[in-house]
Design goal:
Elements: H1 11-23, E1 29-30, H2 35-48, E2 52-54, E3 70-72, H3 77-91, E4 96-101, H4 105-121, E5 125-131, H5 140-147, E6 153-157, H6 160-172, E7 178-181, H7 190-194, E8 203-207, H8 213-230, H9 238-255, H10 260-268, E9 272-274, E10 277-279, E11 292-298, E12 301-308
Parallel strand pairs: 1-2, 2-3, 4-5, 4-6, 6-7, 7-8
Antiparallel strand pairs: 8-11, 9-10, 11-12
Length: about 325
């Protein structure tokens, strides 16, 4: 039986939902979506001995708490930050970079990792580090400060709802920098949120997932089945939630039991061929050989640049 709950992207509600699921007797959890809800919820599941696979949360903290119950089927922010830093410095040839984050667990964590990896490359200077919040709509003060440094790239750790107005205000201030961000910005809604300020090749973003050519047919078939059943295209992390569910099923079959204490060792050792790729976990519960997909926007449409499995390869010219 499937029990579905909505955590509202709120950490407090996330823990309440987690406790409700535990009290309801669930044996496995696919979720949560956001890093900010996934981490506090994971403590409750771990205390109950219930394994959890997140199809979307990217903060490294999630799988580095020492729990044996936490897994994910997407890349974490260590890889996301490295890929974006390598791309900004190696492909975009940025020499001056400004960084903004929204102070959420996701946004700040990604921005911190990006800053660390920019410094590691040694090829660019971080000229400004600014902060906002995930409810803000006015960014003129921080953007005016950033404009004085004439950055080549502005990195934003946050979501599309704030990135859209930020891009509009960048355009109004005459800031020409390329806007680089993570999967919170990489959405089909950004063109509507940013309007003409989106431009072509103005925004580069990355999604923590993606399939190489050998897997594209399987992903397309999944998309067709999804449209037939639900009458709409799937959102970014639906295939990863599907693979997480099927990975749980494979672990239960391997253990011959749906008792978490019995199938958890099988889950940790699993090697399952999903539609998004091979699902196998390292000692922390992170996905081995995780993929990322770099995107830009052209003519108002999200346009794939390339799939990256090794952060060191992100410097290749993808344009």
């Amino acid at each position: 039986m499937l029990q579905a709950e909505d955590d509202g992207s709120d950490p407090k509600l996330g823990t309440a939902v987690a406790q409700k699921l535990v009290d309801g007797g669930v044996v496995a959890v696919v979720g949560h979506l956001n890093s900010g809800t996934t981490v506090p919820a994971s403590k409750i599941y771990n205390s109950a001995g219930i394994p959890q696979i997140s199809p979307a949360a990217t903060t490294p903290l999630y799988t580095h708490q020492g729990y044996k119950t936490t897994f994910r089927v997407v890349a974490n922010d260590d890889l996301v930050g490295r890929v974006l830093a390598n791309y900004a410095v190696g492909t975009l040839k940025a020499k001056k970079i400004a960084i903004i984050d929204d102070r959420t667990a996701f946004g700040q964590g990604l921005a911190d990792q990006f800053a660390k990896d920019v410094k590691r490359t040694g090829g660019a200077e971080i000229v400004s580090r600014q902060f906002t919040n995930d409810r803000a709509t006015d960014f003129n003060a921080i953007l005016t400060q950033i404009r004085a440094h004439r950055p080549d790239v502005i990195f934003y750790g946050g979501m599309d709802a704030t990135a859209g107005p930020m891009l509009k205000q960048m355009q109004a201030l005459g800031i020409k920098a390329t806007f680089v961000s993570g999967d919170g910005v990489c959405s089909e809604k950004l063109p509507q949120l940013a309007g003409p300020a989106l431009g072509d090749d103005r925004v580069v973003c990355v999604v923590a997932g993606g399939v190489d050519a050998p897997l594209e047919a399987g992903m397309a078939a999944f998309g067709e089945r999804y449209r037939k059943r639900y009458g709409m295209d799937f959102q970014t992390y639906a295939p990863y939630a599907y693979d997480a569910t099927m990975t749980f099923a494979a672990a239960m079959r391997a253990a011959g039991s749906s008792d978490p204490a019995k199938f958890l060792p099988a889950l940790a050792a699993i090697k399952y061929q999903g539609i998004t790729g091979t699902i196998a976990f390292d000692a922390n519960g992170d996905l081995r050989d995780a993929a990322l997909t770099l995107y830009t926007y052209r003519k108002g449409r999200l346009t794939k640049l390339r799939v990256v499995r090794d952060g060191a390869n992100a410097t290749a010219n993808a344009r």
